[in-house]
Design brief:
- There is one protein chain.
- The protein has 10 helices and 10 strands.
- It has 336 residues and is an alpha/beta fold.
- α2 runs parallel beside α3 and α4 packs across α10.
- The protein is globular and about 65 Å long.
- The mean pLDDT is 95.
Length: 336
């Protein structure tokens, strides 16, 4: 079964064709990074307009890359939640029109479920049940995947997501947008023990995450150092990045570790944009090894927003009977 996937939840316009949920036949992404870099972050209205301009091209490219036409596909899978509402609506509306025109089934896919499904493409042997850790710019969630379409949320962030905290820290350090990759490289050059940042905790919710305090702490540190006349460059900047990264990674790992401390034995699956962070990957690898569980990590190409993951999850959603009517709406916020 060949599924065309469409993703437009934030600032990447993507389309892909995946066969039987496990084999990517094509994948095309139109990035808006250069446009939003002018503003230091994603501007929702600009993102929506850019999606509108790019959708025809990326879908055509995905079909041609797979050697197919729209008539050859079995269904159209599209992200309907969560994300920027205008951006979601552009992709959803395009998918509706395409599905209606060719008489294809429209399959609604949750963005977080899509991120998890990236690992089905990278590791064909992976099957539920397992524990999924989704770490991205808008989400930090710990989820028990009991079946391909049956997921139970164990823990979530109570405020900022990990990716958002990284972006804000990168901005205050004067790093270029998007800040995740730059922070990763800079942190590798610094002393993570120079500054002590508190690891976020949530009272009476041992599996939940909190990054707001950490984000505020790094901003306050930089402002304090500047007020003293210090120039935030060189080794000092690298040490701040390293110290912040160590605290952010520890915050993510804390909830996961508590889960395995309490007796969980299922494999651990990492996904989301922040899954590309080398420090997080290394820490989770050590954690998984320490508890004797297998860790699945997607390749860097499948960490960020992409349509392969949407098409993959769309296949499993369709098998479970999920079909969207033409009046399907988009939602900015919704649990997986």
């Amino acid at each position: 079964m060949r599924i065309l996937g469409i993703e437009s939840s934030c600032d990447e316009t993507a389309a892909a064709v995946v066969e039987d949920g496990r084999k990517a036949l094509s994948g095309v992404v139109a990035s808006q990074v250069d446009v939003h870099a002018l503003y230091g972050g994603v501007v929702p209205e600009i993102a929506s307009r850019a999606h509108t301009e790019a959708l025809c091209g990326v879908v055509r490219g995905a079909l041609e890359g797979a050697g197919l036409t729209a008539a050859d596909i079995d269904a159209v899978a599209v992200t309907y939640a969560p994300g920027l509402i205008g951006a979601l609506l552009t992709g959803l509306s395009f998918a509706k029109g395409l599905a209606y025109s060719y008489g294809k089934v429209l399959v609604p896919v949750h963005h977080i479920r899509g991120h998890i499904a990236a690992n089905y493409l990278a590791s064909p042997e992976l099957e539920p049940p397992f524990i999924a850790l989704v770490v991205s710019g808008g989400h930090t969630s710990l989820i028990k995947v009991e079946d391909y379409t049956k997921l139970t949320t164990i823990g979530v962030t109570r405020d900022d997501a990990a990716g958002e905290a990284f972006d804000k820290a990168a901005r205050v350090l004067g790093l270029p947008y998007p800040g995740g990759a730059a922070m990763d490289r800079l942190a590798s050059e610094g002393d993570k023990n120079r500054f002590r940042f508190t690891v976020g905790r949530v009272h009476d919710a041992e599996y939940d995450f909190s990054f707001s305090g950490l984000k505020t702490a790094v901003i306050n540190l930089v402002h304090t150092l500047k007020a003293r006349g210090e120039v935030i460059e060189g080794a000092l900047k690298a040490d701040i990045a390293a110290s912040f990264t160590a605290a952010a990674v520890a915050t993510v790992c804390r909830g996961v570790e508590r889960l395995y401390e309490n007796g969980e034995k299922l494999p651990l699956v990492l996904s989301g944009g922040v899954a590309a962070n080398s420090h997080l990957r290394k820490a989770l690898s050590s954690l998984a090894e320490g508890y004797g569980v297998k860790l699945y990590v997607p390749p860097l190409s499948l960490c960020g927003d992409n349509a392969q993951m949407i098409a993959s999850q769309g296949y499993f959603e369709l098998l479970s009977g999920a079909k969207a009517p033409l009046w399907q709406n988009a939602y900015a916020c919704m649990e997986a």
